[in-house]
Amino acid sequence: MHVSISWSEFEQAQPFAAKMMRSSINKNRVAHAYLFEGERGTGKRDVSTLMAESLFCERPENILPCGSCINCKRIKNGNHPDVHVVEPDGLSIKIDQIRSLRTEFSKSGVESKKKLYVIIEAEKMTISAANSLLKFLEEPHSETTAILITEQPQQILPTILSRCQMISFKSLPAVYFSEKLQKAGVHPVKAPLLASITNNLQEALELNDDDWFAQARKIVLKLYEVLKKNPLYALTALQDEWIVHFKEKAQIDMGLNLLLLIYKDVLYIQMGKDQQLVYADQRNIFETDALQISSRRLSEQMTAILEAKRKLNANMNPQLLMEQLVLNLQGGPSFV
C-alpha cells in the first residue's frame, strides 16, 4: 500500500468523508465495514492506507499517525502482517482470494488483536466470492475492519452494501487539484486544464508529458479561432488537422471536452469568474470574444458540443458528427 495523503489533505479534498472518518475514530466507533465509493482518482485507496495508519500507529496524536513508527512504515510499504489488500486477479476477484483472506483472519492478529483488509475494485468480485465475503461480514470480529473500494456501488450485492457504512468521495475541487499538480511540477498554465479533465494524479501527470495531448490543445484552440471565420476555413481545419489527430473514440471525446472548456472560459469571463479560467494564457482573446457574443449563444454552442459527445457515444460517424458540430457552432444549418 502506498499513501500520498495526510489527514489535512484528506479534509481539504474530501471534507464530508474526512469528517465522518475522523469522528468514527475519535469516538472509538470504527465500523466493521466501510464502502468507499466515488470516481477514479478521488483518493479512496490513499485514504484506506491513511485509515490503516491511523488505526495501527504506535504513537498517534489526536488520531494523526506519526508516519515514522514501525507500523506506519510497514503499512506505507505494504508489508504489515495485519493489513491485507485484495485486488482483482485478472478481470475478477475470485472465491479463493476471499477464502484465503478469511483463513488469514481466523488467526489471531500477529502484532495485536486488530486486523484490517481492503478490497480494491470490489464490484469485480465473482458471485461466489461475494457470497463468501458476505458470510465474513455477517460474523464480524470485534477488532476487524473491512474497507471495500469501488467506482460502481450499484454492481455490488445489496446484502453486502447493507452491512457497510458508505462513504462517498466527490470529484476533487478543480482548484485544489490544480494546486496539487503544480506541487508535482506541472506548469501553472497547464495545471487548471488538466485538473478539469481528470481527477487522477497519475493520469494528469502522464497527459502533462504527452506530446499528443500538447498537440491536441493547440489543434482545439486553432479550431476555435477558425470557427470565428467563414465555414470553409473551419471545415478545412477539421479535415487537415482535427480528423488526422483525433482518431479513436476516446481521443475525439477528449477533443470535445477540450473544446467545451474554451466556451466555458468565455462564459466565466462574462460572469466575472475569470479566476477559474482553464486556458489562462488565452485570457486576452477570450475577453474580446466575451464582449462580442451573448451568453445565450454561448449556451447554445456548449449544448451543441454536449450533443456531439452524446452522438459520439451512440456511434455516429465521427467525421459527419464533427462537420455538423462545426456548422452548429458557426450558426449554420444542421444537416443530420
TrEMBL record:
Domain of life, source organism: Bacteria
Alphabetic keyword roster: DNA replication, DNA-directed DNA polymerase, Nucleotidyltransferase, Transferase
Example GO BP: DNA-templated DNA replication
InterPro entries xref list: DNA_pol_HolB (IPR004622), DNA_pol_III_delta_C (IPR015199), DNA_Rep/Repair_Clamp_Loader (IPR050238), P-loop_NTPase (IPR027417)
Enzyme class: transferase
MF terms in GO: 3'-5' exonuclease activity; DNA binding; DNA-directed DNA polymerase activity
Pfam families documented for this protein: DNA_pol3_delta2, DNApol3-delta_C
Protein name (record): DNA polymerase III subunit delta'
Organism: Lederbergia lenta (Bacillus lentus)
